[in-house]
Amino acid sequence: MAAGESSYLGGFYFRFLPQRTFSSLSTREITSRLRQWSMLGRIQAQAFSFDQTFQPYQKDDFVMAFFKDPNVIPNLQLLSDSSGQWTTLGTEVKKIEAINVPCTQLSMSFFQRLYSENIVRESGHIVKCLDSFCDPFLISDELRKVLLMEDSEKYEVFSLLEREEFLFRLFKHLCLGGSLCQYEDMIKPYLETAKLIYKDLVSVRKHPRTKEIQITSSVFKVKAYDSAGLCYPSAKEHEQTFSYFVVDPIKRHVNVLYHCYGVGEMA
Question: In the chain, what's the furthest Cα-to-Cα distance?
Fold first, then answer.
């Protein structure tokens, strides 16, 4: 082992940063939207700092060290499958999965094609369609068709690679919501909320020479397993249950965005 190398997993140590709050999830307007989308009380972001240089190829060691860290275990929040209350990971993680999520978008013009393809009217109204089901989601407008129906003629408006983008994923998660989600008639609340959360989680910097804005964060979609199987973000798999780790290698911060599909807080 090289001198100065920690014998601990991957050499990463973490600290919980309770003072780092995420206004994109807590302003009054956003809270009322999340309530309407059945996500309120089931979505949250937390920040942790770490002490080593991070390279994206180290993601598996990094995430495993995170779940084993004594400062993470009592602080990382998740929803209990049995009680539906917020709790911490009361089990030993044996295996992790960390999938690279591309994060290159610097502007909301990415979604401009929703207007040009008649998914959204110029007024911002989402174009309605006949109801159909894409289990478990009700499809009652052209937007949900684009998001969910692979055989719809509009599905190709976004390429497979674009659908992997963190910004697209955030937007889609907000559109689909929780199990009692009330859909919006207008596109603006979805776009605005996705933009705010994205800006809150992702770090950018000006390139010293070219002065171009660059994204410095790496994003991973994370799952963890204990001896019984999947244990995080939940023991139950669902398209709308997720945890994204957004790693800023310059500040040495990791922002964890978590959501567990279910019935959100009501009014």
Answer: 66
- Neighbour-count burial for 96-109, b at 16+ CB within 10 Å, e otherwise: bebeebbbebeeee
The structure's pTM equals 0.94
Angle between helical axes of 166-176 and 188-201 (0-180°, round to 10): 130
Instruction: Kindly report whether the peptide bond that precedes residue 208 is cis, defined as omega within 30 degrees of 0.
Output: no
My answer on whether omega of the bond before 102 falls inside 30° of 0, hence cis, is: no
* Type of residue numbered 188: K
Query: From the CB of residue 90, how many other CB atoms can be counted at a distance below 10 Å?
Result: 11
pLDDT tens sequence across 80-104? 988 889 999 989 999 999 999 999 9
Angle between helices 28-36 and 188-201 (to 10 degrees): 120
Q: Could you read off the pLDDT of 31-63 as tens digits, one per residue?
A: 999 999 999 999 999 999 999 999 999 999 999
Work out the number of other CB atoms within 10 angstroms of the CB of residue 224.
24
